[in-house]
Amino acid sequence: MKKGEPGIFYSLEENADWIRMMAQGYGYNITELENNGLAILLGGVEDDNPDALVANLAAEIKRTKAKRLVIDSLSAFESKYKNEMYIIARRLISLIQEHHLTAVLLFLQHRKVDLSCQGRV
Q1: Which of 11, 52, 100, 113 could be cross-linked to 48 through a Cys-Cys bond (beta carbons 3.0 to 4.6 Å apart)?
Q2: How far is residue 40's CA from residue 48's CA, in Å, rounded to a whole number?
Q3: Would you state the pLDDT for residue 63?
């Protein structure tokens, strides 16, 4: 992958200011990245359904000629579309393959962890 290739960061959970602040906190010059082809897109379960997400991404990939894609996080759809998550993921993977993208799809999973010291001395 070459530096300066266009890419898309599609957030389903955070706003653009938070994304920029976090990127800067990790040492990225977000302004430079955006000037060199990074598109930060925002969506949400309230605004987008899975069909709209795929359609919006397809249009943005074509518009930006993106080579990289990050989606943060598909788990935003889980509560509303729990039984369709496999289909949603397959449609996104097909889109990624069709456009020959390098991609990262994030899916946050919440687990309860028992931190008690039961039975320990």
Answers
A1: 52
A2: 16
A3: 95
pLDDT digits (tens, 9 = 90+) for 73-95: 888 888 788 888 889 899 999 99
d(CA 20, CA 89): 26
9 or 52, which is more confident: 9
Q: How far apart are CA 42 and CA 53, in angstroms?
A: 10
Q: Where are the domains of the chain?
A: 7-105
Fold for the domain defined by 7-105: Rossmann fold (3.40.50)
Q: What is the pTM of this model?
A: 0.81
**For 68, phi and psi rounded to 5 degrees?**
-135, 150
Contact 6, 38 (CB under 8 A): yes
Say how many C-beta atoms besides its own lie within 10 A of residue 30's C-beta.
18
